[in-house]
Every structure is written in structure tokens, then in C-alpha cells.
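lol so apparently i was supposed to do this last week
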Amino acid sequence: MTRLVLVLGDQLSEGLSALRAADKDRDIVVMAEVAEEAGYVPHHPKKIAFLFAAMRKFAQRLQDAGWRVAYTRLDDTDNSGAICGELLRRAAEHDATGVIATQPGEWRLIGALSEMPLKLHIIRDDRFIASADAFEAWAKDKKQLRMEYFYREMRRKTGLLMEGEQPAGGKWNYDHDNRKPAPDDVKFEGPLMFEPDNAVEEVLDLVAARFGGNFGALRPFWFATDRDQALAQLDHWIKGGLTEFGDYQDAMLADRPFMYHSLISLYINAGLLDPLEVCQKVEAAWQAGKAPLNAAEGFIRQIIGWREYVRGIWYREGPDYTRRNILNHSNDLPSMYWGAPTDMRCISQTVAQTRDQAYAHHIQRLMVTGNFALLAGIDPWQVHEWYLAVYADAYEWVEAPNVIGMSLFADGGIIASKPYVSSGNYIDRMSDYCGGCAYKVKDKTGPKACPFNLLYWHFLIRHRDRFSSNPRMGQMYATWDRMDVERRKTVLRDADTFLAKMQAGDRI
Ligand code: FAD
Ligand code: DLZ
Ligand code: SF4
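anyway here it is w/ iron/sulfur cluster bound
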């Protein structure tokens, strides 16, 4: 009997568990560009184009390898508009009895698939190193799920950067050597930019016609759209960017959006690169003396540590995670997140870069747009939808723990032991944004005061009951308490004025 093998847009791996479980001679691979997936948030046009182009090329690759592929293009007249609709249509067409699928990375889709009137066999996505069971076994008796300890398990499990039972160089974590302030210049030229071929051009025309109104610049389009190109980007970065990656991981420069970052998350998340192969290549570069240990360790930690950890949290916390809002924040997302003019240079730079590239690096996401959203009390659901839409690497399994948990503390501290909040000082130290800003980072009160300076205290005071007993935050409250009473009143009053302006939709 024929079965259908579902391959989603972020499952473009030849070794996908669903493909391994299927039979080339009798089963049919189903791939579909559908309005529902392209529209559940207003995805950045570059993200949609990347996925459609990569899906088309992957389908061809499967066909070349002997698979029968039923591929639906977005503009096919009989396109039902949804993954489940396409499965039902293909099942009727081919008289198929059931569906094999690798577990999707969004609860929304897991729910929809399980309600379909077809026999469904969902298989674990073993592109992740830790299975849900392994994560649960690690998590179950712990009061706090700290990434660092999980990461050590992953090091032992993979053998990456291990010397027998011991971590290479004697330390598990070299972050102490990382996180230097922004350098004057960046020696790495940035990611490889691929010229669109005819197949990509065809997709770009389609996306321009159907999604041209979404936030984000479609062109110039330069993403890799197949595995060979993605591998070329990885090798290019290992040669040129890895050495300095650790040192300047957290630094931001207005005219260098990519700094020393690898720009591979979108390729790993879509399945074009395998996380373990990426780490093994980085380890090999260190072993060959081509990269320092602090850079190799820092990078490998992001992948087998953070990436695996957030996936584990996403699955463990379940479908309601994206609705968490422990701090009861309810302000609307300001229009500056969608490109409306703002006087805050750090935000306007990060948003402009996001609009142009569907990319911002970790610290821009965490300490600029995330930090502001948290301090300004923005509704986490709206923030979540924004991040899910605007970044080319965003899928719920990775975006939600980073946004709801790490950035907004809306999960009550499952991921972060304290909220990632800072005044303008941090941004000033790590970037060149503040120099050209209409606000003054040194001003703590008054009309020119950096909004981060005002909102930082406003946030801490709003949530004093929750955070003052946190051992890592006591110092912040002690500083506040030592401040002159009048000054404290002025800070809170100016913060209120700023928030009222923001709420009224005025330019901030
Ligand atoms: P590099 O800086 O070169 O890092 C190397 C790799 O490590 C990345 O490619 C990625 O695979 C992995 N990585 C690093 N940090 C994380 C992390 N916190 N979680 C998971 N993987 C990580 N990453 C996504 O892939 N998709 C998202 O939707 C996403 N949303 C985020 C939202 C917020 C608020 C924050 C703070 C972080 C988010 N991240 C997300 C994590 C991180 O910002 C991106 O993985 C990274 O910026 C991708 O760029 P890069 O490939 O150049 O990464
Ligand atoms: C993000 C996305 C988009 C924009 N379009 C499609 C699509 O048309 N077809 C498809 O199979 N997948 C798409 N995706 C990725 C899915 O949304 C993703 O597989 C799920 O959200 C699970 O992570
Ligand atoms: Fe951002 Fe404040 Fe610096 Fe302006 S002064 S760039 S608002 S941190």
C-alpha cells in the first residue's frame, strides 16, 4: 500500500527520519507551498522566498535520488492552501492509506496533523542530538534547568571538545574570554551572498506578487538555497569569521550587521546543514590550530548547548508556552518594530537591518529589541509574533523559548534565572549606536534621557515584589534605594511620560 511521506519546509534533510522510514519504491513524498504556512504570521518576504526556493531544489534532489515527489506550488490552481488539505488531496489521488511525518517544530501544526482523518505515524526528529526522553531524563528532578549543566551532558554525549572525561583545555566554558566591546573595524567580510539563479528568480517573482506587502525587503536576495551553498557558507565563515567569533560575539556596529557571526541558523533550522556536522567542522578547525579554543567552545556551546536546550524546553512546556505572561505585560508593540520612525538609534538600526536582511544577531535580538520590549511592558504574545515573522531562522520551537523565556521572562524564570534587562550603558559599551542617537545615554532623567535608563528603573520598581529577593538582583535594588528620593521620583515620572507617549502611538 502507498503511504505519503510529509516533508515540511524546515525538514529539507536527506537523512530525515520520515524519509528513512519510507520506501522509495512504493511511497510518495508530499511537499507543499501553502497559504496557511506562509500566512500564520506575516513572514518576512526573504524568509518565504528562502523556504520556497530551498523546497523546490530539495524536491528536485529527492526526485534525482529516485523518490516520487508530489510537489504543490503556491500558485497551483488546485492548491488547497493547507498542509493537511494537501495531504488529504494527495491521499485521494494516490489511494494512500497513511502518512509518515517527522515531528514538526510548531504545536499548531502537530495539532492540525493529529486531527486529520488519515492514519498518521509521527517520528522523532533525530536531527536534534537530545531526544525529548533524554531531555526529560535530565530535567525531571531538577529545580532549575540551567543550560550550562545540560550543555556538559551534550559535550559528554557527542565527545565534542573532550579529552577523555575532561573538557578540552580544562574548562567547560570560556565565556570569560569572550564578549569584548565593539572593535573599530571588522576584518571578516561577512556571509557569502549567492546570486539568484533562474529557479530562485521565479520564486522571487511569486513572493513579490503574493507577499510584497509584508514587512521586509525581498531584494537583494542572497541566501543559500541548497545544501552545497549552505556548506560553502559554513566553510567560508570557519575560514574567515570563527577566529574572532568568541571575542566579539556580543558586539554591535551600525554598519556591520553580521560582525563575526556565522549566518547559518536559517540553514540548520531548515535542514540544509546538520548541527553535529557543523560542530565537528568547528572542532576540526580548532584541532588544526586554525581557531582558538574560546571561539570554538563558544560556538559549539550555542549549538549543542543553547539550541538543543531551547528545543527541549519548547517540547517539555507544551502548546500553551507562547501564551505565558507571568509579568502581566499588556502594552501594544510600538510601530517602530515595523519600521515606523524612531529617535532610538539602537532600535532603528536593528529594525532596519531586520527589514533588509531578515537577520539580527543574538545580542541585537536580546539586548536591543528584546530588552526594550521587556522594560516597556509589551504584551509577550505580540512580541512573539513579531520575532516569528521577521527572522529567516524563526520557527516556534526555537523562537518561543528565546522570546517568551530568555528575553521576556514571561515563563517566570524557566530559562533565565533573572530578567535580561539593562540600561543604555550596556548598549553603549557594546556598540557604536549611542553616538549618533537623539537621546543621550549619559542622561538619566529629562527629555533627552535614554529610554533604557528610565525604563530600567521603572521595570525594577514595577516588579519589586517579584525580583527583590532574587540574589542576583539585590544589588540593583540597593542602588535604587541609595538614590536621592527626588531623583527617584523624577526617574519614575519621566518613565511614565515616555510610556504614555509610546502608548499614544507618538514618535519615541
Ligand atoms: P551565531 O551567532 O553565529 O551562532 C551560532 C549558532 O548557534 C546559530 O546559528 C544557532 O544555530 C545557534 N544558537 C545561538 N544562540 C542560540 C539560541 N539562543 N537558541 C538557539 N540556537 C542558538 N535563533 C533561531 O535559530 N531562531 C529564532 O527564531 C531565534 N529567535 C531568537 C529570539 C531572541 C529574542 C533571541 C535572544 C535569540 C533568538 N535566536 C533564535 C538565537 C540567536 O539569536 C540566533 O540563533 C542567531 O542570532 C542566529 O545567527 P547566526 O547563525 O549568525 O548565529
Ligand atoms: C515557514 C514556512 C513557510 C513560510 N511556508 C511553508 C510552506 O509553504 N510549506 C511548508 O511545508 N512549510 C512552510 N514553512 C515552514 C513550516 O511553517 C514549518 O515546517 C512548521 O512551522 C513547523 O516548524
Ligand atoms: Fe539606544 Fe539609548 Fe543608546 Fe539611543 S542612547 S542608541 S536609545 S541605548
